[in-house]
Amino acid sequence: MDTLIQPTLSEELQELYLENKEWLSDILFVEDEVRFLKKVTDQVLLGKIQQDDLRQIEMINESLNVILERRKQLRSLLDLRKHKLEQLLRGSSVAIGVELIEEDAAIIVQIKSLMAAERIRKQELFKLAKQQKLKNRPIGTNKPLKV
């Protein structure tokens, strides 16, 4: 890789580039998690459901759709950032400023927020699935077996 910028700066840009790739990986993980959670939602919907539970599932499903949309926007942002960093590393662009660091901070906050929202929805969905499983047990099996 030929670069016309200082070696120290080049190392920092390479670090930013690798960090950007890691964030992309995190975003792809969230997409896989949401796909899994939607399958769990479908499984919960197959059982007998009370009206309150149905409203909660609808809320969770809508939240998952919002998470997917936010993930899509973050993915686009990270792809643009990756392209910008590639240009900087090749030396075809020398515009490096404070905004690059500010972008980093904003992206980190967005990714952490996205992952936290996904984690909360997962917990809610698993709790609901567990409750439904307990409600749908045959009579006499509501208590766990003692071994």
Describe the structure.
The chain is 80% helix and 0% strand. The protein has 3 helices and no strands. α1 (7-46) packs antiparallel against α2 (51-90), α1 (7-46) packs parallel to α3 (98-135) and α2 (51-90) runs antiparallel to α3. The termini are far apart.
Itemize the secondary structure elements and their pairings.
Blueprint: H1 7-46, H2 51-90, H3 98-135
Short description:
The protein has three helices and no strands. With 147 residues, the protein is mainly α.
Overall 3D form: rod-shaped
Q: Hey, roughly how much beta strand do the residues contain?
A: under 5%
Distance between the termini: 64 Å
Query: What number of structural domains do the residues give?
Result: 1
Helix content: over 70%
Q: What does the average pLDDT come to?
A: 79
Key descriptive features of the protein:
mainly alpha; 3 helices; 147 residues; disordered N terminus; single chain; 80% helix
